[in-house]
Structures are given as C-alpha cells and as structure tokens.
C-alpha cells in the first residue's frame, strides 16, 4: 500500500504525461511520508535512482535514498545532488510550507518554495528532463511560468483527479528541458 493519498496524484500525473521512465534519476522534493517516492521507485524500476528530501523524517523506502533537511538550505541541496550521482531526468516537488494562517505570509512562503524547487530543477536536470511542481491557484507564479517557458519545450497545468476539488493546489508539468533556454 502507499503511505499517502498523495501517491495517487503522482500516479495520475505519470499516467497522463509519462514522466517516470525506466532507469530514470528522480529527485523528489517534499518527500515525506514517502508516497511519491514509492511510486517513483516502482516506475523507475531496478535501474532507476530515486532521492527524496524532506524537513520531516520519513521511514525508509526500499530502493530510494531519503535525506532529511530543508531544501532551501544549499548544503542540503548539494547532498541531494550528490546522492543522485548525475543529472536528474525528473524533478518532482510536492512541497508545501506549514501555513501560519496569515494569507500574505503564507502566500510568500508558497511562492518561495516553488521557486526554490524550480531553481534546483534548472541546475540539476539533464537536457530533455522534466519538472513537476505543486503550486497554488491565486499564487503569483507568473515570473516562474515565464522562466519555465524559456527553459522547457512544454509547460502545462494539471489538477489530478485525486487532488480535492476544493483545494487550491494544482501542478505545473514542464517537459523537454533546454539548459540554455529558448
Ligand atoms: N508527496 C508526499 C507523499 O506522497 O508522501 C507528500 C508531501 S506533503 C504534501 C509536503 C511536504 O513538503 C511535507 O512533508 C513538508 O515537510 C515538506 N516541505 C515543506 N517545506 C520544505 C522544505 N523547505 N524542504 C523540504 N521539504 C519541505
């Protein structure tokens, strides 16, 4: 069984966009409790490499490397890159900050996390790679979208059926990474 209901969101996104190739190197940001990591390990298969990062501890996922730390900490990002052993084919971010209930503050934190995930993706992806990132509608991701469109052949939004309708979360799915931009 999967550790999180969230696992089904990645299954649906992957069924639709064919993101997780056999043998892929996958970086999973905001991995705890490990549902997406489980799906990534299953689908990347024995030749794949899956590295998860989260501030929170998570029980080991066989076949994956889980690192505990804050992704916005450069040292943690470096450890994740080292554990991957090469450029990533896919960077996933299901990260969500702990909200404080103050709308403007929460909003800034959400945008900052998504941007941190994007910056890391731009730094570690192999040409042709893909990036999937949780964003929130009403989020001021315009700057982020412009950057993604420069660096990826295709940028789409998708709300998987397993994501609750009343939730503002949605996912940006960017494929066909071009390191130098368009
Ligand atoms: N995809 C996961 C799964 O299927 O089990 C669920 C992820 S949960 C919705 C979001 C996670 O993002 C939380 O576990 C949280 O600790 C993590 N997170 C938030 N900010 C983070 C940061 N700065 N660095 C690393 N992880 C972070």
TrEMBL record:
Q: What stretch of the complete protein does the chain hold?
A: 50 to 231 of 231
| Species of origin | Elioraea tepida
Per the Swiss-Prot or TrEMBL record, the active site comprises 134 (proton acceptor)
Q: Which keywords does this Swiss-Prot/TrEMBL entry list?
A: Cytoplasm, Methyltransferase, rRNA processing, S-adenosyl-L-methionine, Transferase
Task: Quote the record's binding site residues for S-adenosyl-L-methionine.
Answer: 34, 36, 54, 70, 94
The protein's name is Ribosomal RNA large subunit methyltransferase E
In the Enzyme Commission scheme, what number(s) does this protein have?
2.1.1.166
Ribosomal RNA methyltransferase FtsJ domain location: 2-177
Enzyme class (EC, first level): transferase
